[in-house]
Amino acid sequence: MSGSPTKNHSYQDHAGRPRVVVTGMGVISPVGKTVADFWEALIEGRHGIGKIDKDIYPGVRVNTAAEVKGFDATMYLDRKEARRTDRYCQFAVAAAKEAIEMSGIDFSTMDPFDTGVIVGSGVGGLHTLQNQFEALLVNGGPDRISPLFIPMMISNIASGTLSMIYGIKGANYCVTTACASGTHAIGEAFHKIKLGYLKAALAGGAEAPITRIALAGFTNMRALSMTDDPDLASLPFDSRRGGFVIAEGAGILFMETMENAVNRGANILAEIAGYGATADAFHITSPDPEGKGAGTAMKLAMREGNVTPDQVDYINAHGTGTPLNDKYETLAIKYAMGEEIAKSVSVSSTKSVTGHLLGAAGGVEAVASIMAIRKGIIPPTIGLFEPDPECDLDYTPHRAKQKTISVAVSNSLGFGGQNGSLLFRKVGEEL
Question: Is 179 considered catalytic here?
Answer without folding.
Answer: yes
